[in-house]
């Protein structure tokens, strides 16, 4: 695993999850990712929210072409 910290570490572990698990809410994913990253669930939830918003924005702009 690369030596990542902060949001990058959470995103790394998030991207390792199967797509169907990535569809879960940030609240549902927080305990799973917190265990993998060592961060608190609250911190992970915030980072997952940022990741999901970024993904949604990318999907919207790609769809608008």
Walkthrough of the structure:
With 65 residues, this protein is an all-alpha fold. Helices cover 78% and strands 0% of the residues. Helix 1 packs across helix 3 and helix 1 packs across helix 4. It is globular, with a radius of gyration of 12 Å.
Can you give me a brief rundown of this structure?
Helices cover 78% and strands 0% of the residues. It has helices spanning 6-16, 19-22, 26-37, 41-64.
Elements, N to C (H/E) = HHHH
What structural class do helix, strand and pairing data support? mainly alpha
Proportion in helices: over 70%
Shape: globular
Q: Averaged pLDDT, please?
A: 94
Count of helix runs: 4
Oligomer: single chain
How much of the sequence lies in strands comes to: under 5%
Based on CA atoms alone, the radius of gyration comes out at: 12 Å
Number of strands: 0
- Distance, first to last CA: 34 Å
Biggest sheet descriptor: none
The poorly predicted ranges are none
Name the descriptors.
65 residues; mainly alpha; 0% strand
Explain the layout of strands and helices.
Blueprint: H1 6-16, H2 19-22, H3 26-37, H4 41-64
């Amino acid at each position: 695993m690369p030596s990542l910290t902060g949001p990058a570490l959470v995103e790394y572990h998030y991207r390792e999850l199967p797509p169907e698990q990535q569809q879960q809410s940030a609240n549902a994913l927080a305990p799973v990712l917190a265990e993998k990253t060592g961060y608190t669930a609250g911190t992970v939830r915030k980072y997952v929210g940022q990741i999901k918003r970024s993904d949604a924005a990318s999907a919207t702009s790609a769809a608008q072409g």
